[in-house]
TrEMBL record:
Keyword check for GTP-binding: no
Skewed-composition ranges (Basic and acidic residues): 1-11
Keywords, ordered alphabetically: Hydrolase
Molecular function GO labels: hydrolase activity, acting on carbon-nitrogen (but not peptide) bonds, in cyclic amidines
Record-linked Gene3D superfamilies: Metal-dependent hydrolases, Urease, subunit C, domain 1
Organism this protein belongs to: Streptomyces anulatus (Streptomyces chrysomallus)
Official protein name in the record: Hydrolase
Length: 133
């Protein structure tokens, strides 16, 4: 089920990716993390999902536990304004550049993919893009 589809709290049917992960790895608890509203919580992760959130020290697991006391736990950031068609072309405008950026479809696709992977590498899980067509 895609992340954009809500699940009922009692729906424990794992996705195929979740089933493979949970069969090999026990749940992970992020312990004592501070949220933006000031609460301190434990978060139990199972597969690719948040399984439970509770007050600090309330969640147990047979798996690993990471102590996040002193750390702020935030949701993944989103990039609200990007231009995928001109991504990674800033260096092509300078006096020392080899020339203007290529606007061939395969070059635009390569740059857009590289830019999206850079965003993902910095933690962004959503990207809104503007493209001139």
């Amino acid at each position: 089920m895609p992340d954009s589809q809500p699940r009922r709290p009692d729906d424990n049917a794992p996705d195929s990716a979740d089933a493979a992960t949970t069969a090999d790895h026990p749940a992970l608890v992020l312990g004592g993390a501070r949220l933006a509203d000031g609460r301190t919580v434990d978060v139990r992760l199972s597969g690719s999902r948040i399984e439970a959130v509770g007050t600090a020290g309330s969640l147990s697991t047979r798996g690993p536990r990471i102590d996040l006391r002193g750390y702020l736990l935030l949701p993944a950031p989103a990039e609200p304004h990007a231009h995928s068609d001109t991504a990674l072309t800033a260096d092509s405008a300078g006096p020392d550049s080899p020339g203007p950026a290529s606007h061939r479809a395969e070059d635009i696709q390569r740059r857009a993919t590289e830019a999206a992977l850079l965003q993902l590498g910095h933690g962004a899980t959503a990207l809104r893009t503007h493209v001139r067509v």
